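Appendix C reproduces, verbatim, an entry submitted by the partner laboratory led by Prof. M.T., so that reviewers can inspect both the input and the predicted structure.
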Amino acid sequence: MKRVVFNQKGGVGKSSITVNLAAISASKGLKTLVIDLDTQCNASQYLLGMDVYNTSPPVPNIGDFFNQSLSFRLKQKSPLEFVHTTQFDSLFVIPSSPELGELQYQLERKHKIYNFRTLLKGLSRHFDVIYIDTPPAFNFYTLSALIAADRVLIPFDCDAFAKDSIFTLHENILETKADHNDDLEIEGIIINQFQSRAKIPAQLVEELKDSSLPVLEPYISSSVIMRESHSKALPLIHLAPNHKLTKEFINLHDTLKNN
């Protein structure tokens, strides 16, 4: 199963959702890989710690993969050479690179939009589940991920402006499906940072449902423990397995298909 987590709006919790669902998957014994395509590298630092980019030489990352695809003169690394272990059993990561932004124009100019699909095809033989964290933009890397994936999860942070953009995003994904990837399916919208006692979030969620969009349950609450999880580089299942937020993520994970 290859799953993309994507929304064109920033700050909706893409990296938090990606890492925590992946960590739960791994805790259940599924060999799970996270691929970070966001230049902010949040998912990478969440799993590998804040000093991952201070090593010399830098660890092999997804930027190296895209860079080698631009030239056949380079010695080509195998897909598994970009994969790193984490401190958590069955959980692996391909880190992002701040250089992705610089590479994007060259990759577009050389029409390398299907290279990521080739990478995932090779990696799928080694992992049960692959989660892909994407940048908050419908750009080359996001399109590459959608072309390569089976499912899309769309985080929604109960913001009125975000609701309007969901419809555009929905159309973009359906267009990508029609043009590039017949197997791509929208798995659902994840309601994130939900405040059950506030009127507006509940109203916005009902409007999404009334528009026949696939809203997933349970909703993910807002909690300060997520910040602690980030700062300690510990997914919730390892930091606070009995916390309310952790249980919401576990229940959400169990609603998803992993085959």
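The chain has a mean pLDDT of 93. Additional entries are available on request from the coordinating office.
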